What we know:
The structure is a single chain. Helix content is 0%, strand content 54%. By secondary structure, it is mostly beta strands. It has one domain (2-144). It has a four-stranded antiparallel sheet, with no helix packed on it. The protein has a four-stranded antiparallel sheet with strand order 7-8-9-10, with no helix packed on it. Strands 11-12-13-14 form a four-stranded antiparallel sheet, with no helix packed on it. Strand 8 (75-80) and strand 9 form a beta hairpin.
Amino acid sequence: MTVVDPEGRIVWSIPLRYYSSVALGKDFLIVANPDEDMYKVNVTIYLPKTNETFQYFFPLDRPNTIIKAVANGSYAVVGVPYTWMLYYFKREKLLWEGSLSIECGYEDYPYFTLHLSRNGFGYAISSDGYAVTFFSPNMWGSFFT
């Protein structure tokens, strides 16, 4: 992935892997790259206005895992299937990390969808629609249908 300025000059670049996820917030870019050799997820946050880059690393427990990243306004969430973790950011700062409902982790439906509103509220829902985790800048919680 490459970021260019209005004159077409490359100002920032990062390689993407097959299962990477990229999201664009109000004034930042977040990239979640799986590193299957090291069993981790590399999360990079780039701030174009200041040309700053911030790095985070989180566990990954199996190869071929599709990482999910969403951003809206000043907030971003990275979700990692199979470890069932959410990592919640406000721009470049990690605000919290938390586990999705264990019911979201059953092998019968190992996928989930992330939704995030501009004010930082959102949810993760399992692929079968039975397990939901709600989250905000301050917390997360779960319920099951």
